[in-house]
Amino acid sequence: MSLTPSNYNIIPLIKRESIVSILEKGNRTDGRKFTDYRSLSITQGYAKKAEGSAMVRLGDTAVLAGVKVKEDVPFPDTPDQGNFIVNVELLPLAYETFEPGPPDENAVELSRVVDRGLRDSKAVDLKGLCLVPGKKVWTVWIDIDVLDYGGNVLDASMLAAVAALYDARLPKVEVNGDEVKVVKDEKGNRVPMNYPVVSVSVAKLDRFLLVDPDLEEESMAEARLSISYLEDGKIVGMQKFGNGTLSVQELDTVEGLARTSSQRLFEELKKVIASPEGGVSQ
């Protein structure tokens, strides 16, 4: 079973003290301000065999999301809604401690946080995935592969999932009463989306609060808080990582930093999803 770097890396005390001394001067080791994201690029249509896909590069972190669609039956309590399922895999090539095999608790947690951000925000129009109420719906699978682990994989995964969903098209179908015929090799409408959602992660390192922690900062952080937003600033998800604590005042500061930073992510995401044919943002 693989171990995430945040649980595995041991940062020498002298190195930690050196990094904290840099933070005390108002800088980060890579030259960013405390509120800055690393370089970001979003590329849709990266995996040609998927119904939709997106590659996100955030600094040294690289995440690929792919969307697959299949006919299914609805759940009994939601007969007029389709389904979506999020899976995350920490590939062995992404980091030296990642191993092949079933997803470990870290991958499961990551998939659940991304799923919750999409589900609780109602970003995906599940009713738009219904073909025949009570009988036939679409199930949308969102598979997220972490290719390079350079820290803050959650924010990159959420961006990749949303961009891939906006890139995805459903198979073309012909509906006649209760009969549904899939037209082979033809694409239909796009996966119905109501609006995008992003997550912003802030790490607490010593007494400093850092937006978009890289791998080194994440490994040393006492705590990390990730908040998911809609573009209007509404909070639709929140997840804390690490054993450290955040005071009420620190929580207020983190939320303010995350809310402001979310707008930059929306700007970059909308450069891609606003285009009818998708594309590249960077």
UniProtKB/TrEMBL annotation:
Gene Ontology cellular component annotations, sorted alphabetically: cytoplasmic exosome (RNase complex)
UniProt keywords, alphabetically: Cytoplasm, Exonuclease, Exosome, Hydrolase, Nuclease
Keyword Cytoplasm: yes
Subcellular location as annotated: Cytoplasm
Exoribonuclease phosphorolytic domain: residues covered: 37-171, 196-258
InterPro entries in UniProt: ExoRNase_PH_dom1, ExoRNase_PH_dom2, ExoRNase_PH_dom2_sf, Exosome_comp_Rrp42_subfam, PNPase/RNase_PH_dom_sf, Ribosomal_Su5_D2-typ_SF, Rrp42_archaea
Gene Ontology MF: a single term: mRNA 3'-UTR AU-rich region binding
GO BP terms: rRNA catabolic process
Subunit (UniProt): Component of the archaeal exosome complex. Forms a hexameric ring-like arrangement composed of 3 Rrp41-Rrp42 heterodimers. The hexameric ring associates with a trimer of Rrp4 and/or Csl4 subunits.
Family indicated by similarity: Belongs to the RNase PH family. Rrp42 subfamily.
Function: Non-catalytic component of the exosome, which is a complex involved in RNA degradation. Contributes to the structuring of the Rrp41 active site.
Protein name as it appears in the record: Exosome complex component Rrp42
Organism expressing this protein natively: Sulfodiicoccus acidiphilus
